[in-house]
Write a structure and sequence with these properties.
Layout: H1 3-24, H2 30-35, H3 42-53, H4 56-69, H5 75-90, H6 92-98, H7 103-110, H8 114-146, H9 151-201, H10 206-209, E1 213-214, E2 219-220, H11 221-230, H12 244-260, H13 262-265, H14 274-292, H15 295-310, H16 321-324, H17 336-342, E3 347-349, E4 377-379, H18 384-391, H19 396-434, H20 440-462, H21 469-493, H22 499-520, H23 548-566, H24 572-582
Antiparallel strand pairs: 1-2, 3-4
Helix pairs in contact: 1-9, 1-19, 3-9, 3-14, 4-8, 4-15, 4-19, 4-21, 5-12, 5-14, 6-14, 7-8, 7-21, 8-9, 8-19, 8-20, 8-21, 8-22, 9-19, 9-20, 11-15, 12-21, 12-23, 15-18, 18-19, 19-20, 21-22, 21-23, 22-23
């Protein structure tokens, strides 16, 4: 059986499973559509949260970024895992106690303002649409290789699949689909990692293999990796970070952005009791940890395999690594995996010195004495996890499995985000502001229509993403950090913040963050600032657009407290409501009003 046929078999079987679950779990009411009827078991919910959480950025792009940047990009791991703990401890149980369907509904009721609810809808849509771009882009990367179609066709296929199980089933269909997707993606991620860890270190546990001996050279794996990449002019893989301020702010932005992303928060509304929300968080952390503990090993081993594929002389024991680094393979002898990925355009080769060999190195290093005229191999970060089985010459069924896993990761999170968007439009915008007397049947139809429109928009934007999947996702986290997280925290833990403060804080934090991102990403031009390229030299105080969400959050808090201090206190019943939410003794059934 050809590799293409194997890929189609694995991907097709997984898609059939997802659509079958959606038909079985079709939503019949708004409560089914928004919170899966409110009766999901904590273990089931924990697994669904794991799938919702581990997006294309986690599955496809995170390990690629760590592979490319080493320790410096471990901020993705620290920020996302730390943020999940923050969400589980500080927000989830209290929001579950409040007992509403959506995040904007909580903000609207807590700050006793339809305007606050509307602003929260805007913030939610901006953050979620930005996030879903990364998921659709990741799905396009996976499809373009494994189903041998162009990225646009891949996006359309992904959109059709999401349409069936998300629009039909709502949260009920998505929940049980995400359980299946978690099982697919975690198996797909760990099995290749086990094979590769065994091959390189003899240790079947990838997290331990990372700190084991590289069998071919007899050196510690990370020492071997440092040795081969520094010979090619790259920084040490384990090198420290120069800009500590930016690293801290980026990690903080990911953490608080995590806690402010509504597609994860709404999962905690699906369980019967507050105690179940806490158990869901615990189980989700276990399921998430299985992948996040494996990712650093996958990244390191992928980077080592990539370099030693191009420079075979550096694969084993090397007396003089500098000499070994001068002998890359001939382009005509490149392995099959490079040939197949070249067809997607995600690997590109240009013979700059005309010697027919692949010079793969850091352009900032001057290796003209070797006869090199510049780096000749361009590798998209997003492909490393997907290409890992091929790089390591693993069986065809493993490649098919990781194809299904990558698509499961992208589609599971995309479905959760699209549900958050459609819920905000149908429940918070249409029912909350435009037509409060809409029937349940009408609201359910509005939810399905808005999700359908959101899928079309997400597919279009996914075809033209402004960066790698994980980078686009990081922008979404920054937006959520600057807008929604402060409002949620102040709504739970401060009785003094009023409607004026919340609205002013959200708008200021969102506007500041978007302007900074748009200016330094080149999407918005300010006269006289034509040199503001997205480089550390131009960033204000060395703070990158990916990190600015933490500053936006600080501004949000400051403005909200300042405006609240200058205006009247919230009504007494709102202060009592805050007090009751902070002590989640009861379950509080999600209600529709």
């Amino acid at each position: 059986m050809s590799q293409f046929a194997i890929n189609v078999l694995f991907v097709g079987a997984s898609f059939a499973l997802y659509i079958g679950i959606a038909i079985w779990a079709k939503a019949g009411s708004t409560k089914d559509f928004y919170v899966a009827g409110g009766g999901v078991h904590p273990i089931t919910n924990g697994m669904a949260i794991g799938a919702d959480w581990m997006s294309a950025a986690s599955f496809i792009s995170m390990a690629g970024l760590i592979a490319a940047g080493g320790y410096a990009n471990s901020t993705f791991l620290m920020g996302w895992t730390g943020g999940y703990v923050l969400l589980a401890m500080l927000l989830a149980p209290y929001l579950r106690k409040f007992g509403k369907f959506t995040v904007p509904e909580f903000i609207g009721d807590r700050f006793y303002s339809k305007q606050a609810r509307l602003v929260a809808v805007i913030c939610l849509i901006v953050a979620s649409v930005t996030y879903v771009i990364g998921q659709m882009a990741g799905a396009g990367v996976a499809f373009s290789r494994f189903l041998e179609v162009d990225a646009t066709t891949g996006l359309i296929i992904a959109a059709v699949v999401v349409f069936f199980y998300a629009v039909l089933g709502g949260m009920k269909g998505i929940t049980y689909t995400q359980v299946a997707q978690y099982i697919v993606l975690i198996i797909a991620y760990t099995i290749p990692a086990v094979f590769i860890s065994l091959e390189l270190t003899g240790n079947p546990l990838p997290p331990l293999g990372l700190f084991s001996t590289h069998e071919a050279s007899g050196e510690p794996l990370l020492s071997k990796l440092n040795e081969v990449i520094t010979a090619l002019g790259f920084n040490q893989y384990t090198a420290d970070v120069d800009n500590k301020l930016n690293m801290v702010l980026f990690t903080l932005s990911l953490m608080i952005g995590t806690a402010g992303l509504p597609h994860v928060i709404i999962r905690f509304f699906t369980v019967p009791k507050v105690a179940d929300a806490r158990w869901s968080a615990g189980w989700a952390l276990v399921f998430i940890g299985l992948l996040y503990l494996t990712a650093p090993a996958v990244a390191s081993m992928a980077r080592l395999n990539l370099v030693t594929t191009v420079y075979p002389d550096m694969a084993g024991q090397v007396e003089n690594v500098e000499d070994a680094a001068t002998n890359p393979i001939l382009y005509e002898n490149r392995p099959e995996w490079i040939r197949t990925w070249e067809e997607t355009g995600l690997i590109q080769y240009e013979d700059k010195n005309g010697d027919g060999r692949i010079q793969f190195y850091n352009d900032k290093a001057d290796y003209s004495d070797r006869g090199w005229a510049g780096n000749e191999l361009s590798v998209n970060n997003d492909i490393l996890v997907l290409a890992n089985p091929e790089i390591a010459n693993l069986p065809g069924w493993v490649i098919g499995l990781i194809a299904a896993g990558g698509l499961a990761a992208a589609l599971s999170t995309a479905a959760g985000l699209l549900l958050a968007i459609s819920s905000a439009i149908s429940h918070d915008l249409i029912k909350g502001s435009i037509n409060p007397h809409i029937t349940e049947k009408g609201e359910l139809m509005a939810a399905r229509i808005s999700m359908s429109v959101a899928i079309v928009v997400a597919t279009y934007l996914g075809a033209n993403p402004p960066g790698f999947a994980a980078q686009v996702v990081a922008l979404a986290f920054g937006i959520a950090a600057a807008s929604l997280f402060p409002a949620l925290m102040m709504g739970i833990f401060s009785k003094r913040v009023n409607n004026y403060g919340a609205i002013a804080g959200m708008l200021t934090g969102l506007a500041f963050t978007l302007v900074y991102i748009f200016v330094y990403k080149g999407w918005f031009f300010i006269p006289g600032t034509n040199n503001l390229a997205d480089t550390p030299e131009n960033w204000v105080l060395g703070i990158s657009p990916l990190s600015i969400g933490s500053i936006g959050a600080i501004i949000n808090f400051a403005v909200a407290f300042g405006v609240s201090k200058a205006t009247a206190e919230p009504p007494q019943e709102i202060q009592e409501l805050v007090e009751s939410v902070r002590y989640p003794k009861g379950a509080g059934t999600a209600v529709d009003h």
